[in-house]
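Q: Give me a backbone?
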Amino acid sequence: MRPSDRYGKWLRFAVLHHTDWPGEKDHYDLALEAEPGDNSEAEVLMKFVSDKFPKGKEFWADLRRMIRRRYLTYEGTMSGNRGRIKRLDSGIYCQADYETVIFNGSKLKGTYVLDSEPCVTYRNIQNAILWMKTPAVKGEPVLI
């Protein structure tokens, strides 16, 4: 699915807290579904990593790789001595257009603006950064 094919479609997301991974700092994973479906083994989640919980007026995250859809619901110990993950939030999101993303989770909620070069692409995920901020115009409506 090309990024433009996602415009206007509600897909799932999860925010995971990844801890106790030897040699790695504790961090947050923002997993965004790139295409709808039910196959839990399909690698269709774009995994963004951040040192802070993604909320508030702005946040950033590095796109690391594609991961399996099962991480939308999984909590517990990771295989290969890679620590533990706990799901802190989940819900649905919509990429309304090239630069507008709407989240509807229990904690991550609202309209955000992608504030960088093309970064959420399904095919080219190397070194991508997701920098999001709330709309700069005071009083602008939130579309959820």
Observations:
- The helical segments are 3-6.
- The chain has one helix and nine strands.
- The chain has one domain: 3-133.
- Strands lie at 10-19, 27-33, 43-50, 58-68, 76-77, 84-95, 100-105, 109-114, 129-133.
